[in-house]
User: What shape does this take?
Amino acid sequence: MRVSIVTPSYNQAPFIERTLLSVLGQDHPDLEYIVMDGGSTDGTVDILAKYAGRIVWESAKDRGQSDAINKGLRIATGEIVAYLNADDTYEPRAISRVVEFFREHPDTQWLYGRCRIVDETDREIRKPITVYKNLASRRYSYRKLLTENFVPQPATFWRKALLAEVGYFEEDEYWCMDYDYWLRIGRQYGAGVIRAYLARFRHYPRSKSGSAFVRQLDDQQRLARRYGGPYPLTLLAGRANYYRTVWAYKLLARLGR
Assistant: This one.
């Protein structure tokens, strides 16, 4: 079972080699790795060139992160696909765990596992958030997904056949293209859950989550309203959860965590 991983990249030279190695070091024998770089000028291209022959890559101006992901997905040849941002990493054996789950559950169309949060030096941080996310995601529920995005993007995989049915990532979405996609898939198919760590998400001041978490949460509320029309009470619960999450994240920011 071939797995295709797509990495959208733009000026991530401090991190991208760690991302590359975490994918290329997986033990699954049939792995396709595609890197779509948006024309980096910080040395990223030199790093990608080192791995020519082991990855499929190009560097050219694009229309943003979602466009880069879609370009990679369109050329992917794997039965299973995912995207991993250029500052995140996979845990060892993550891909083989995913393949094993899909083989054992042939009706499962998408799945997610657990994800640690790390800083710029790979030190694990924000452990209380990880504990909360693990509890929130232990069972999949679409109504719960409308109240908060508990699906960890770096640890999420789906069958490529879904692209023909559900479509590709919405290129007008900048902050929450992943949440938009989970809501589109999730209203049709329940997700499989792997209760093991598959990935590491990097949080630091210049990252999206570090610099604009309130904007991300606002966009999540907008998307929940778009897809949650049949569930008005669920949307009210989501609004309450929004205020609680903003408060918690602002507190962590004040504490420098």
Notes: The domain at 3-254 is CATH 3.90.550.10 (Spore Coat Polysaccharide Biosynthesis Protein SpsA; Chain A).
